[in-house]
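Translate sequence into structure tokens.
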Amino acid sequence: MLKIKLINQRFPKILVIEGSVGASATLGRTEGFNNIAATHSEWEILDSQSGDFTQAGGQEVMESFIKSYSDFNVVVCQNDNEAYGAMDAMDAAGITYGVDGDVIIISFDATHDGLQYTLDGKINCNVECNPLQAEFAAEVIQKLQAGEAIDAVTVVKDEAFVAPGIESQYAITMTQEVLDGRAY
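Result follows.
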């Protein structure tokens, strides 16, 4: 779990933009986040709606949230495209976000552009979903074919990244060097 200092020390009032309804990534990210949120009585999830993993969907949901909720300070987007749409909607509404803003944005996927926004301080935290899993899976298959023993549970490493100025023992602080060194 990432520990991020809340802007103005307010309790988190969270809006969640979920991915496509029924998608395995949506189900896993929603369940995981809700399980953690349930252990923090000070966290308040105000609403959660599908943005369909798209920028347009993220913008549409965020526009609806802005009309419905006047007091929120965290937006969790289940992918970077939804985060871009949420940022577009907040820009249009004059709502500040990111490291120097009033709203914390947390996103998933850690795409190159998403990490650039993290480096720029617009996305506070971006959690990777490693797209290079095929190479790792191929290695496991080759070991099995060769009759080698493998661990019963094999985990593909993912990282979390935070904007400069945010400290977390669970995440890497985004720098230009980190961004330039990424394979995707």
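Note: The CA atoms of residues 73 and 103 lie 4 Å apart.
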